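Why do we care about 3D structure at all? Because function follows from shape, and shape follows, mostly, from sequence. That is the central idea of this module. The next example makes it concrete: a single protein chain, its amino acid sequence, and then its structure expressed as C-alpha cells.
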Amino acid sequence: MTNASAAAPELRDPAWIGRVFWMLAALVLLAPALALTEFRPWTLFSPAALKSTGRFVADFFPPRIEAEFLLLVARECWRTVAIATAGMALALVIAIPLTLLSTSALSVSALPGRMHALPFAVRQAVRGLLILLRSIPELVWALVFVRVVGLGPTAGVLAIALTYSGMLGKVYGDILESDERQATQALLRNGTGRLQAFFYGQLPQSASELTSYTVYRWECAIRSSAVLGFVGAGGLGQQMDNSMKMFQGSEVATMLIVFMLLVGLADAASAWLRKAIA
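And the structure:
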C-alpha cells in the first residue's frame, strides 16, 4: 500500500462526489445561457476594441474641476439624494398600509385558525398588488412617467415610490409573518385594533430589522435615482447623459468620481444607522 493511499482516509472529503456533480451540472446549465447571450469576453481584447477603449478612457483625463462646473455637479448630486429620499418617503406611505392589510398575523378573522373567505380574498388582492408594483422595474416606471409628467425629478420620485413600495411591502410582510405572534394575538383577542396590535405587539420585536432594511433600500434608491436620470428623470444621471451626448469625457469623469463618493457616503451613513438601531 502506498503512502498516499494510507494517509488518504482521514484527509478525504466525503462530499467531494456531490460537489463535483453539482459543479458539472451548473456548468451544463450555464453553457446554454452563455451561448444564448452571446457572451464573448475575449472580444474585449481585440485590437479594435482596445483602440476604442483607449480613446474612450483618454477622453476622461483630466477631469473637469472648474468651480462653476463643480457647483453644478454638487447641485445635481443633492437633487439625486432628494429624489431618492422623496421616493422612499412616498414608498413608505404606500407600503405600510398595504403591509398591514396583507399580514395574516394582524388579522382578527385568522385567530380561530382559518381565515374567513372575504379577508383572505382581500389579503390575496393586496399581495397581488405588491407583486405588480415590484415586478415592474423603476426604469420602466420612469419611462412611463417621463411621458406623463415630462422630464424632471417628479418622474424619478414616482418611479422609485412605486417599485420600492412593492419591495418594502413584500419584505415588511415577511418580517412580520416570521415574528412571534403570542403578544399580538393576545391583544387582538382582548379587543384591540389592528394598529394597536401592530404598534404594541409586533413593532417592538421587529423594529430593528424593519429599520435596517429601510435604510438599505434608501441606499439602493440613491443608486437608482442616478440611473433614472439617463431616461430624463432628473438628477446627476441626466446631467451625465447630457455630457456623454456632447462627448465631454472630462465632465463625465468628474461626475463619476462624485457619484462614487456619494455612494460611499450613503453606505457609511447606512452602516452607522444600522449600528445605532442595533
